[in-house]
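Weekly sync, protein design subgroup
Attendees: M.S., D.O., the rotation student, P.L. (late)

Item 1: inverse folding check
M.S. brought a backbone from last month's batch and wanted to see whether the design step gives back something sensible before we order anything. D.O. pointed out we never logged the input encoding, so this time it goes straight into the notes. Structure tokens as presented (301 positions):
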């Protein structure tokens, strides 16, 4: 852990309160706690229907120590752009507006509003915490769900077909000023990217890996281990991109077999050895394609 991360974790007061309604081991809640360390109090959140809308607590209570606005499932991006415009009209260009949404509200239901907002280059930060299904409504598949993964709408005998949607490629096509993937198991990288997003003007997009014990059928205490394995196995690479340009890989860890990642999650328990080989092939292929567009790689752990 670098000196800046130690300072932020040691000196910055938690803006999330204890006693919130997240499940034990929730990667989304852990990510929010760390993100607020980097962003500070001068921000306003827009949260659509998702787990985080419940975790925050029912009105008039809130476990998040900043102003927030609960909105409809599909309206995170459009509302955030309106909040930003309202602040600007008041002469306030310093408060950071953050749309904080799950993969369902980002990859699927809110994609149209997200694309329009990115195309306008609206000046706010959009964060997608990706737990790869509609967890808040009972673990239904989204287009972020990996092929073959168990959900209530894709049981083991009728697995999901088709790849996970590449949301980062979609945002790259909009040539947004800053976009990055982040993982709470890598706090140095995570905090640096939030600090970068904080000082960048225009549309910014952060895609977070969010372990979900209840939806992934994993042990609560394994969330950080699973999160780290997601990157070490290259299932969830860590990189950033500016203005739709070259990819900068920010963590290049030693390669772990994807089987190590899959084995800790019951949603993949039905996988055969052939399924694991197919998953490994897809991960290797995606990593190779990512490297072809990368200009910088850092040495991982």
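Designed sequence read out in the meeting:
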């Amino acid at each position: 852990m670098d000196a800046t991360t130690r300072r932020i974790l040691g000196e910055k007061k938690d803006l999330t309160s204890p006693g919130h309604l997240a499940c034990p081991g929730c990667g989304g809640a852990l990510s929010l706690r760390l993100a607020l360390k980097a962003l500070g109090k001068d921000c306003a959140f827009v949260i659509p229907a998702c787990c985080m809308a419940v975790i925050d607590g029912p009105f008039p209570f809130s476990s998040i120590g900043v102003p927030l606005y609960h909105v409809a499932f599909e309206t995170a991006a459009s509302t955030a752009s309106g909040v930003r415009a309202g602040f600007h009209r008041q002469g306030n260009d310093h408060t950071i507006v953050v749309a904080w949404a799950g993969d369902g509200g980002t990859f699927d239901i809110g994609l149209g509003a997200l694309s329009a907002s990115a195309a306008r280059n609206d000046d706010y930060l959009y964060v997608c915490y990706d737990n790869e299904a509609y967890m808040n409504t009972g673990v239904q598949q989204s287009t972020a769900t990996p092929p073959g993964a168990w959900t209530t709408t894709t049981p083991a005998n009728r697995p999901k077909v088709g790849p996970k949607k590449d949301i980062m490629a979609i945002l790259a096509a909009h040539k947004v000023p800053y976009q990055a993937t982040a993982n709470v198991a890598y706090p140095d990288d995570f905090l640096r990217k939030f600090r970068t997003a904080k000082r960048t003007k225009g549309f910014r997009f952060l895609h977070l890996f969010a372990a979900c014990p209840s939806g992934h059928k994993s042990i609560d205490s394994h969330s950080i281990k699973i999160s780290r394995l997601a990157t070490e196995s290259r299932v969830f690479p860590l990189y950033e991109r500016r203005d739709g340009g070259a990819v900068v890989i920010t963590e290049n860890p030693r390669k772990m077999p994807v089987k190590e990642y899959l084995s800790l999650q019951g949603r993949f328990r039905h996988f055969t050895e052939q399924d694991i080989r197919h998953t490994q092939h897809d991960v290797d292929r995606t990593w190779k394609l990512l490297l072809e567009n990368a200009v910088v790689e850092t040495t991982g752990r």
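Discussion: Residues 3-297 form a domain with the Rossmann fold fold (CATH 3.40.50.970). The CA atoms of residues 42 and 94 lie 8 Å apart.
Action: P.L. to compare against the previous round before Friday.
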